[in-house]
Write a structure and sequence with these properties.
Number of strands: 5
Order of helices and strands: HEEHHEHEEH
Strand order of the largest sheet: 2-1-5-4-3
Shape: globular
Distance between the termini: 30 Å
Number of helices: 5
Structural class: alpha+beta
Largest sheet: 5 strands, antiparallel
Helix content: 40-55%
């Protein structure tokens, strides 16, 4: 997956902070920011996310609880679904660095808990309906691109050492 290129394009398209977020079945997780946020994360924050906060994040909780992976924002998660502790963690740790408004575009989630998503973040008002609609239009393309990348990686792994999948070779 051309993650860095996609982050750059999402940044240009939406004009906000962009990140790629992942979690694997073994509960390891991480993120890649398009532009680093000065002095963030501070010591202990990543451990907090690993130990507790990731499962309480309102968007992640929404996607897991409902199974609805449609791109959406934090503000659009119903209050009754968002864990209060998760909202408090977000306010405490993301408001000071201007990342409290988030629009998540998940493109992969498995039954084992693995997921992949692009997250747009900014301060101030929630993302507009037009932003959410655009994210929802982009989302199926990301799903297809991810699938194609997985197929190509598997295809390359199965290719004979001659360089071509059918065993032929080409010389110049």
């Amino acid at each position: 997956m051309p993650i860095e290129r996609l982050l750059a394009e999402l940044y240009v398209t939406f004009g906000t902070g962009t990140s790629w977020t992942w979690r694997d079945a073994d509960e390891t997780f991480g993120f890649l920011l398009h532009h680093p946020v000065p002095e963030w994360p501070v010591d202990g924050q990543l451990q907090l996310w690993a130990d507790e906060a990731l499962d309480l994040h309102p968007l992640i909780h929404w996607f897991r609880t409902t199974g609805d992976l449609t791109a959406t924002t934090l503000e659009r998660v119903p209050a009754g679904v968002a864990p209060p502790r998760g909202l408090q963690i977000l306010r405490d740790h993301l408001l000071p660095v201007g990342l409290e408004q988030q629009l998540s575009i998940p493109y992969r989630q498995t039954a084992t808990g693995a997921y992949r998503a692009f997250v747009l973040a900014r301060s101030g008002a929630d993302f507009s309906d037009a932003d959410v609609t655009l994210a929802q239009r982009i989302q199926p393309l990301l799903v297809l691109l991810a699938r194609q990348c997985r197929v190509l990686v598997g295809y390359a792994a199965d290719a004979p050492s001659s360089g071509f999948p059918d065993g032929s070779s080409m010389t110049w």
